[in-house]
Prior knowledge:
The chain is mostly helical. The chain is 61% helix and 0% strand. The chain has 12 helices and no strands. α6 packs parallel to α9 (188-205). The model is unreliable at 3-39, 43-66 and 286-290 (pLDDT under 50).
Amino acid sequence: MFCRVLSKSGTLARANNFRSSFRPNVGGGLTSRPCSGSGNPDGSGNPNGSGQSTTDGNIANNGNNGDGDSYEKDIKTKILQSSLPHVPRHGWSRDTVAAGAEELGYPDTVHGLFRDPGAELALYFYSASNDSLSRLLRDGTLPSPSAESKAELNAFLTNAIKTRLLMLEPYLNQWPQAIALLSKPSNAPHALSNLMTLVNDVCYYAGDRSIDTRWYTRRIGLATIYKSSELHLLQDRSQGYDDTWNFVKRAVEECVKLDTMLESNAQLAKDVVTASVSTAKNILGLSWNR
């Protein structure tokens, strides 16, 4: 199928740790779906794209059964959703969350519900955007490629990455701040889980049903392309972000070519996974020392 991995030395032990982190949902409920090897993404995010399946009906039920944790989670989700329009003015910050709370009629001190208000808002936005992309993939708005067509696969991957990146457009000026917040050791596991949810959904709808080493190479490769393209977009001053879309197109084409090579050489695929760990960690911009 696809996905390029950039090579750099790394130990087998680190490779195994890196691989194992892909499977579980390490986001503690902040992501829409856990990553899975070949299963269909369940798309269970709520209609508002929060990545957390809570509803007004749940509030009533929680009031009856005393489930305070679920009630608090629902309140926090509503506040975060209300806070997003304030990001261009206040950034990913406590002030933004306070403004969102006030808009709903809560006192601005309610931001105390959040351990790290700015980071939690960025994680919420990332998860909600993942849910939005998943719905587009699931309902066929972004149609899956045919199994035998490399051209369709290239176009699908390029379009999926472009669609997801464009969701950042309202917050491009503030996104470097979000990247810094999500790179903090306390937030990196959640950020990684959100990223792997994103690439796992794209891989699934691209037709990937692999259960071998290629499961990892494809997702590492696609994650690397996405993060590199995200950084490219932040610096792009071309008309309509044409420079970024050309970058994505070239990266995807190289990715698919390399995957074809790996498909016929299982040992090469294993070597690529092991060798790519350090480089992937650096490109993803995440801190792993926690």
